[in-house]
Design a protein that fits this description.
By secondary structure, this protein is α/β, with parallel strands linked by helices. It is built from twelve helices and eleven strands. The strands form two sheets. Strands 2-1-3-10-4-11 form a six-stranded mixed sheet, sandwiched between helices. Strands 7-6-8-5-9 form a five-stranded mixed sheet, with helices on both faces.
Amino acid sequence: MVTRKKIFPMAPVVLIWAMAAFFMSIQPCIGAEDPRHFPSKPITIVVPYAAGGASDVVARKLAELATKYLNQSVVVEVKAGGAGVIGTTAVAKSNSDGYTLLLASDSPLNYVPHQRSVPYDPREDFTYIIEVAEFSMPFCVRTDSKFKNFKEFVEEERKNPGKMTYQSQGPKSAGHIQMEFVFSQEKVKIKHIPGAGVAEVVTQLLGGHVNGGIAAGLGAQIKTGTIRPLAVAGGQKNKNYPDAPTFYDLGFKHGAPFGARFGIIGPKGLHPEITKKLHDAFKKAYEDESYVAVMNNLLDTPVYRDSEAYRQISLQDYEQVGKIFRDLSLGK
């Protein structure tokens, strides 16, 4: 009897400990997405720029096509502001379940973080899924300009120091930084006039208020023949600008990752199986003829990199841009 009195009072305690251990072991799974059943609800692609722009157009086409391959709706949500930082932050802080993604670009990932503090680290706070495009940024003049090539544009500044001006989409934008790198290599100082988007670059160029301008999204004006590209900031030759060399072609081969990279990313910590499902669906969307047609209409280039290659090239871009900011004393 003495032995039983010592054992039985402990049984409820042992049972409670066992139950507690069991529930603690399954707690991380409560509310978590089972990768085998992903996706089980609609997916959102956040566009960090204004509706109707090139980013929005690309995202909506990818969403339309990926819906077929994921058997779930893929919708686009615009969260513009802060040079892309507002939308990028929203995705960085979202649940790591694969249901909130970002149409990512260079500005909020590789340029803004070197200018000011942002609430995310591009090197640590995202899962890179797939690269889908590289946008060229043509450096243009008015069609009636006397400058027939980029060398003539630069030589005019050498002959008449302080005369030449150019405009970009905004201060410390990708176009601004890339051209400052080029002009520093040419050892000329051409005055930068910061704009407020593509429309202002076009207006200032056509009005003759600046000598040159650079931006993504100048395809419509180039098509109509009102402006003419002298050179193209882009990772590779753009077939839509056959007479305009890239800055790489002109010898600027080190330091600046020319152009603008676009891809799909999510918050850090995505399960590898979910990442693969997303990659595979967007890869099929990327390969669809209708996506290629959209890119051709934008006069830009579909470019594919898988998850790891996209991550590596993005981190390389981040380091290269940071070095340019330091060399040109433009950083925070």
